Amino acid sequence: MNRRSTPDYGLSPTPGTWGSGRTITFVSVTPGRYVLFCHADDTLAEHAVERIRLALEQRGYPDRYVLWGHSLFRDYSIPLTNAGFDTGKPFAGIAATRPFLRSGLTPSGTCYSRDFIDGGGFFPTGTLEPSDSSSMVRAALEGFRFEMIEDILFYRRNASTAIGTGAGGREVENRFRAAWKPLLDRIDDTTAAGLVHQSHVSRWVNPSFYACLAQLVPRTVARYMTLRLLTSPIHALRPRFLQTYLRTLLRTLLRSVFRRVPRAGA
Question: Which of 132, 144, 134 has its CA nearest to residue 185?
């Protein structure tokens, strides 16, 4: 997709893989500035490319941009509204991480400016590990802007790569941890604490997110999980949330104890 008023798209669906090892079909234009992806078992709407072109034109063909729309099934508007954002309004900064703390943004029907791909694309993880969560958080921290438009861009009837497919609570958490490990290896404690702070704005938070961040800032995670229980006691009825909370309290306690234990020869 080139930055011309009447571009020659030259679109051609091509099977391939991108970063995470998932087989997808992508529509690429070389040398284009934007790439639109679609999983092999999903279907792009006939008007998808034109709707995205119009949206990008309206925004002045921006760099560092991720754009997507509605799906007839498994729509991503819920994580968006859960994070306090609306369709048709770009968002950026550390606040832009909020939707992706809950769940990943499927590549199907999503358009990425090429600098995302040139910068490495998704973190390289396994098929069922949601790098479309951690990779979007990384993009937000690197200054990307995001927008969900009000058009249906693809039809998703199956979710063979969804994190919860046939998985129990512990397996879901392990997959989430694997997807977030490359990101956690890159950020410092201050950034980690900032992500935990952003989670408090959302109505619902994935307990696996708290479990991951507790590896870096357990005290901060324990504090915000306590606040969440006080302001929304219904979270106590969520087994995974409660288990994560108790483990985080224990991690915080043990870290505090070991810090007080004098070192040998001190």
Answer: 134
pLDDT digits (tens, 9 = 90+) for 169-212: 678 888 888 999 999 999 999 999 999 999 988 888 889 999 99
Are β-strands 43-44 and 145-155 bridged in parallel, bridged antiparallel, or unpaired? antiparallel
List phi, psi (to 5°) of 19. Answer: 75, -60
| Strand order through the sheet with 13-17 | 13-17, 23-27, 34-39, 110-113, 65-71, 145-155, 43-44
Residue tagged 């800032």 (tokens): 217
Q: What angle do CA 24, 29, 32 make, to 5 degrees?
A: 120
- Calpha distance 56→9 (Å, rounded): 14
Helix axes 218-231, 239-260, angle to 10 degrees: 140
Where do the structural domains in the chain lie, given as residue ranges?
A: 13-155, 186-260
